[in-house]
Amino acid sequence: MRVLVVTAVDAERDAVLAAAGADAAVRRQASPGAGGLDIRDVAVPTGPVTLDVLASGAGPAAAAAATATALALAPGDYGLVVSAGIAGGFADVVPVGGSVVASRVVAADLGSETDEGFADAAALGYGTVVHHPPAALARVVAETAGAVLAPVLTVSTVTGTAARAAELAARHPGAAAEAMEGFGVASAAVLHGLPFLEIRAVSNAVGPRDRAAWRVAEALAALTRTFTAVAPVLRDGVDDHPLHEEQP
Questions:
Q1: Which residue from 90, 134, 161, 200 has the least number of CB within 10 angstroms?
Q2: Confidence class for position 194, pLDDT limits 50, 70, 90
């Protein structure tokens, strides 16, 4: 069982790899264009499951491009794709240091501002703005990790004001976190016919930008703990739970 895990930056990648309890080896390097891909893999001791972990760069475009390229270079290799990393959390849903598994992945700022307010791309007839992970698998992963199961928002601009945080919370009731890559990773996985998850550890509250209050090291440690806990469930879940369920 091989799982492609896509993070934004190297620190997140290394936090996931640390869940295996061993140094990662570079399995392959491919250069389909400028920069190339650096995909590292480790066999999880509680396997049989292997995590291939890729740092794609920040934002939904970079994440989608890197994920799609990795999947195209290894057709048939993967049974599951996971977007992973740290995130901002909505304080009334999940605390700093907590973990989130996405019940759905939402492109929260893909659309248009209108006189009546924000209209998302789906309302404008431009396609989907929501991808749904397999519900049963997401639920089991969240329970195993002790994580909140709730929507995760994908944004291209990180929230830095109370007004913006309130607007997003009002438009997406129950959303637990915002990050920058999930919708891109999910879009690539769906195009390749693969199930996906988004797993996040919260480093800061969504709202006014206060770098002094961020707890990045703690969130990265939480990300390692989460993957240590859920790696066996990723293997078993793909075998035991329906991956392409009808969604509401």
A1: 161
A2: very high
